[in-house]
Every structure is written in C-alpha cells, then in structure tokens.
Write a structure and sequence with these properties.
Blueprint lengths: L6 H13 L6 E3 L10 H7 L3 H5 L2 E3 L2 H4 L5 E5 L10 E3 H11 L8 E4 L9 H5 L3 E4 L11 H21 L18 H17 L11 H12 L3 H23 L1
Parallel strand pairs: 1-2, 3-5, 3-6, 4-6
Helix pairs in contact: 1-2, 1-7, 5-7, 8-10
C-alpha cells in the first residue's frame, strides 16, 4: 500500500489478505508512522491483528520492491506511457506462472494512495498495470475492497494451480533462470542511463521520454539476473569505450 492515509483502510487490507491466506503487507510512507497501532486499524483488522502488526514499513516504493521480480500496479486509469495492461484475473494467472520457489521469484501487488491512486512514477516501478473490470459508470473501489478482489483472484489461481500440480516442481528439464530482483533492475537502469549519456545517445539536458520508455521496455521482458549481469557488462564496455575515445 503506497502512502495510505486512513488507518481503517490499512486494518481492512490486513483482514482482506488474511481471509485469502496472505500475510505479507508492506506500507510505503504511510501518513501516520504508527498506523499499525492506530485504534481504527486494529478494530478493522478484526482477527488479522498478526498481519497488521507484522506489516513492514518502507520509505519508498523502490525499497518496498527491492526483492520483487514481478510487480502489478493496480489502477483504474489508463496511461499513455506505461507497462502493459491486464485485468485482475489475468494478473493472477501471470503471478501463478511466475512464482517459482526454486528460482526465488516474488510477486507484489501495488495499490494506493487512497485520494488519487498510483502516480505515473509509481506505475513506472511496476511490470504490469492491473485493473478490476468494474461498472464503467462507477468504477471507484475503496483500496481495501480492491485488495480483497485481488487477494481472492490470486487465491483462486493458486489453488487451481495446486490442484493441477502446476506448483509442484517435477525435477525435469533445465532449471528456470533466476529472476532479477527489483533492486538489481534499478541498479542496472542507473548504469544503463550513465552509459547512454557517455556514448551521447542520451542528452541529459533534453532527455525527453527516453529513459521511461527504456524502463518499460526492460520491465516487459522480465529480466533474469544473468541477463542483468550481461547488460551491465555492456554498460561497462560502453563507458570504457567512451572514456578511451575522449582520452584519445
């Protein structure tokens, strides 16, 4: 939950998660630092006090997504520039396919803030935009209600996968590549921008939308750690070439 302002919503979100079997709640820059102990949050958690009390608080969305390998940004608004869009049911199926304990993959669902929803900067940190196909004449959902819908779809998809044996590794074939964490991807993007400036492909005085487009390009591909390492090697070579050219 990004920048939650109402303690009751945080408590309701904890309850929504626990009813569907989830327990890891992360709060990004909540308006009240003591939100998990606020009486409204405790009252509306109603039996999910353990999830509420264990909620992790982060200063930034980047910090919250540091170990995430697939992030969905829940929003009702379309974006001119952003990651691919899907509905909440498709998101649950994609999450199910992405999760692999052996590969260390992690999926995050990003919601909030209550007043205006996710900003373009928040969405840019996600791999997919996710929406709930509600009544087009009145599609506004309370953030905790949206989390309940999302948690149900995820539970349904994961239960279906478990019943069909999708989640059980069979031990055959090549091991799945290790997905790059959010922190690894952010570090690569910073390195990539530095390299693009060095080879004069990116003009920092007039960047236009080059880096946001690059960010969305790499987000769509679902980079593995091996691919990030390879691309950072390319960045290092680009920087070395640019420096050699200037010295020569």
């Amino acid at each position: 939950m990004v920048e939650p302002s109402h303690p009751g919503n945080v408590g309701s979100a904890a309850r929504a998660m626990k009813t569907m079997g989830f327990s890891r709640l992360v709060l990004v820059a909540p308006e009240r630092p003591d939100v998990t102990r606020h009486p409204d949050a405790v009252a509306l958690a109603s039996g999910a006090g353990d999830v509420l009390a264990a909620a992790r608080i982060c200063a930034t969305l980047d910090e919250a997504l540091a170990q995430t390998t697939l992030a969905f940004g829940l929003t009702a608004r379309g974006r001119d520039l952003g990651p691919p869009s899907c509905d909440v049911r498709e998101a649950a199926v994609l999450a199910r396919a992405h999760l692999d304990p052996e590969a260390g993959t992690e999926v995050s669902m990003v919601v909030g803030p209550e007043r205006a929803g996710l900003t373009n900067a928040h969405v840019a940190r996600c791999h997919r935009i996710c929406h709930i196909p509600a009544n087009p004449a009145y599609s506004s959902l309370n953030v905790s209600q949206a989390m309940q819908v999302m948690a149900w779809e995820l539970r349904y998809a994961l239960l279906d996968a478990a019943q069909r044996g999708v989640l059980a590794p069979d031990g055959r074939g090549q091991a799945a590549p290790t997905a790059a964490s959010g922190a690894a991807v952010q570090a690569f993007l910073a390195h990539w921008e530095e390299a693009l400036v060095a080879v004069e492909f990116l003009d920092p005085a007039h960047p236009k939308k080059l880096m946001p487009r690059m960010r969305h390009l790499f987000s769509r591909t679902g980079l593995s750690q091996e691919e990030v390492d390879m691309l950072r090697g390319v960045c290092t070579a680009m920087l070395a070439t640019a420096r050699g050219r200037k010295q020569g």
